[in-house]
Amino acid sequence: MAMNFGAEASDETNHSVFVNFNQDSSSLAIGTRTGYKLYALSSTDKLDLLHEDGSEDIRIVERLFSSSLLAIVSLSSPRKLKVCHFKKKTEICNNSYANTILAVKLNRQRLIVCLEESIYIHNIRDMKLLHTIKDMPSNPNGLCALSPNSDNCLFAYPAANTSGEVNVFDAQNLQNKVLITAHDNPLAAIAFDSNGTKIATASEKVGTVIRVFNVLDGQSLYEFRRGYARCVTIYSLSFSSDSLFLCASSNTETVHIFKLEDLNEVKPSEEPQGLLGYMKAVGTKVLTQSASYWTPMADIMNQWRSFATARLPMSGSRNVCAVANIQRVPRVLIASADGYLYIYDLNTNEGGDCTLIKQHRLDETLGNADPSATANIQGSVSYAAVVRGFEPNTTTVSSTTASSAAALQPVSAGAVAETPPRTESGGDDYDGDFPPMTYSPGF
After folding, report:
1. Which residues contact residue 153 at a Cβ distance below 8 angstroms, ignoring those fewer than 6 apart?
2. C-alpha distance from residue 434 to each of 31, 103, 221 (Å)
């Protein structure tokens, strides 16, 4: 769900952009060399600027649901993680790591920091270091995923850098859960659903096949194919909140939305008759096989095409996608390195082509960036993209609710949790998701 448009190590002095949805796609964060901004996704007509801070250059900014908790990594100090309460303008704690921080993931139980060859798991309530995963295969892109569901507090990362194995780790009980052989080629994208019971994967080189697995036992559930004509690079995967839809974006102009039908509810009378019906029935059976036992028959039968598609005005720009409910209506959201947020409708009954209903200019500085500027998506390889504008049906963000942030200062224990609840324009409790925090000077 989160994607980072960050600069390559050799080019961090250029204008870099980080774009990221929070865990339930109710808000959007943008980080640049001049600071960060948070927007509420409560309306298709406008974006409400909730907060902005121009005190430092941003490499990563992650928000915990609709709370005031932020995890921030700057370009100038890429090995330092800062956790702060942005409404009180207070710093809770900070910690330094041996190497560059490539990704930060949060849910209500855990805060996880991913380096190239190690992973650090913290208790988000007091920031205590609980566990370290070391000597793992090199993960230069910081590819990883954390379940947003605290009851299924699972974390996934590549188990190999030469094949598509994904290791699912129980971040609550601090033990390995299951190893899934998802693809032959290295992983390009992974994502949990909102319940933390399914995981979607895509691989490098052959980015046309997307698979969904049961994380409890590693059994394969679905295989989708986004096309046959060409191999693509998958940039992001994202489930809808009800786990019924899976969105996939890539380096092409087409964003695919797949529907995860309940196989147990398919009635025999609904199946095609004759040879086609028999072949589909065989294909359905093999869906329950482990990924390590994919057979040629399974490969043929389970390559279901997309339920719906959304078409971007251009291809090649890094992007991150999401399926979100805005005012209780399902929408497809794509935040792109071209500096825009695209909002499409989604017909959940008929599918088909999604209509572009609104296009928002995310930040004026994106459109004014130098053409050589680089963009970065979290969990993906760095990518140099031309940051450009596309004007039709475009609006700029509203800044009426934003306030300039002062420099962050340390805060004593308990001060964060005492912050009075604030309401975003979407009606969500600002601090309702915010867990008790303890200030730890040594963190």
Report:
1. 107, 109, 110, 146, 147, 170, 171, 172, 196
2. 22, 21, 34
In CATH, the number for domain 2-418 is 2.130.10.10
Residues in a beta bridge with 258:
246
Q: Rounded to 5 degrees, what angle do the CA atoms 178, 225, 243 make?
A: 55
Phi then psi for 109, rounded to 5 degrees?
Answer: -115, -35
Distances (CA, A) of 264 to 225, 267, 269, 271, 300: 22, 8, 13, 13, 21
Residue 338 pLDDT: 85
Within 8 A by CB and 6+ apart from 438, the residues are 125, 126, 127, 413, 414
Radius of gyration (C-alpha) of the chain in whole angstroms:
21
pLDDT band of 264, cuts 50, 70, 90: low
Closest by alpha carbon to 313, among 334, 282, 283, 291?
A: 334
Contact 192, 180 (CB under 8 A): no
Q: Which tokens is 54 given?
A: 């121009």
Residue 408 pLDDT class (50, 70, 90 cuts): very low
- What confidence score (pLDDT) does residue 394 get? 39
Give the pLDDT confidence of 294-330 residue by residue, as tens digits: 444 444 345 568 999 999 999 888 999 999 999 999 9
Q: What are phi and psi of 102, to 5 degrees?
A: -100, -25
Q: Of 228-242, 385-399, 425-439, which one has max mean pLDDT?
A: 228-242
Buried/exposed code over 268-294 (b: 16+ C-beta within 10 A; e: otherwise): eeeeeeeeeeeeeeebeebbeeebeeb
Closest by alpha carbon to 354, among 310, 315, 320? 310
Determine the Cα–Cα distance for residues 144 and 102; give it in Å rounded to an integer. Answer: 10
Among 265, 245, 267, residue whose Cα is nearest residue 257: 245
Point out which residues pair with 211 in neighbouring strands.
201, 223
Q: What are phi and psi of 165, to 5 degrees?
A: -85, 140
Q: From the CB of residue 18, how many other CB atoms can be counted at a distance below 10 Å?
A: 26
From 424, 352, 344, select the one nearest 87 (Cα to Cα). 424
Query: What one-character-per-residue DSSP string does 309-338 give?
Result: EEE-SSSSS-EEEEEEEETTEEEEEEEETT
Instruction: Name 49's bridge partners.
Output: 39
CA-CA distance, 219 to 246, in Å (whole number)? 18
Polymer length of the chain: 443
Residue reference for tokens 């497809």: 332
How far out from the chain centre does Cα 109 lie?
18
User: Is the pTM value of this prediction over 0.85?
Assistant: no
Please give the structure tokens belonging to residue 409.
């200062």
CB 265 within 8 A of CB 247: no
Cα 265 from chain centroid? Answer: 30
